[in-house]
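ok trying again, last paste got cut off:
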Amino acid sequence: MSWTLKEKYRDILSRESGCRKRVWGDSLAVCLAYPNTYRAGMSNLGFQTIYALLSRDEHVVCERVFLPDPGDEQMFDPGATPLFSLESQKRLTEFHIVAFSVSFENDYPNILKMLAMAGIPLLVEERGERQPLIIGGGISVTLNPEPLSDFIDLFLLGEAEESLPEWMRRYEIMNRSGLSRKESLFALQQELEGVYVPAFYHVSYHEDQRIRSREAVDAALPVRMKKRWVKDINAFLTEQGIAAADTELGTMHLTEVSRGCQRGCRFCAAGFAYRPARFRSEPVLQASILRGVAAQKKIGLVGTAVSDHPDLKRICRQILGQAGKIAIGSLRLDRLDAEMSALLKEGGIETVSLAPEAGSQRLRDVIRKGFGERQIFDAVAALVDHGILNIRLYFMVGLPTETDADIDALIRLVEAVKRHALGRDAGKKPFRRLTVSVNQFIPKAATPFQWRPLESIRSVQKKIRLIEKAFRRDPAVHVIHDIPKWNYVQALLSLGDRRVGKILLRVHQEGGNWPHVLKTGEPHPDFYVYRQKDPAEILPWDFIDHGVSREFLLKEAQEAFVR
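nice, full thing came through this time. structure:
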């Protein structure tokens, strides 16, 4: 085992606070895995939440593992130096469970890479009784776990606070009872809501590659999986448990103030998957705010719809009353008034992100954003009037029904916002910059747009070039955008069925050569990405009850396009 790596891990641990290291003994050993680097993983509140849940269980020892930094990957070898945990530097094969917390589809290839580096067989069917149980959870696999079904033994669908403690208790009992791996998995699938074991389900296909049927291998097993969700969000706190300076958000203490969203934007997976909207009360958040201000000074308020929190202004005042600073990812335009802008400025915020999403009112109505151009200008005015001189605007291109006229409208809107901002700074500090972030719309499972295709890479590139060209010589506007070719991969992993697992395996075997593999996939990846789905066909994720009926989603989709 590399001493260089071990010293690096010890150095990382020495700069953390809040880590709970336990003696193994006869505890159930769980290695919590994040399929990206330490810097990204320790900034993920979902990952921190799972770690806290597992660490509170006195019968469990929980350690962490991350994708090694790019310069360190070659130092790991499945034989001589397999991937090991951060806390005790134990091999992953020494743990009973390796649990992947998965937030993003583009991290799926890293799961295979980490399993291979650990010396764990990639395919479920190749693992024996002595191999760790590989489980997965998180927003992306809750929406559609099928592309990973060849590699993950068991998925937990939904919110971990509701399902994980119960699952751990049941699994611990089974682990000590002498049941085989298959017997334990069968019992868990049969008895616990929110559990999904792909190996117990068979999928057949039509000649045209669409899904024909999906059947359980035993009549005693459920055919439909129900996502678990927390009913009383005030019963616990969801906050950063480990402070780690060497991370993307290492300068702040993260605390969740809300979950779910009542807005119903038709493109938003989180808005549907985390329904219903729930808001943690300001008195419940007090303890987290006090801890966070004492440790980090800056409080990062996290949630699907933070600006819809009925007590948001009081929460901000409490932070300021403790001499703390405030950080919020993005804000709803129609919730941003003069009072809120003043609180943000006092809280140390220099840049605020707003999300018009589309340039024309017609297209904003298609996606159900719920506000108009006047509200956009009012929000910008409130920010600039209170000294917030950097504004980021989020837009999507490739939205359903989008035309060239909508791109022209986007350009005109950005121009108008810029003029509006510049016109507010007379006698004050000058407005600095408008950052325009352009991202491609990607259809997601369990949303009204789940039947829609992705727009072609060439078409999206053309639209992005038009936007860039419009502001190339404008020092007050800076355009940034994502990479369309990777959006194709994300759409494939978001919308694919379990046959996409074979594509993932080939990409892994060919060292990440996506272009070559995508040319030779079967079915061709375009089948999942560029095809308009029939509302009557079986979709890969239809077996999951997300709490929103298919009929409701179809109705929303139909209403979107009557414009």
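cool. The chain is about 35% helix and 15% strand. The mean pLDDT is 94.
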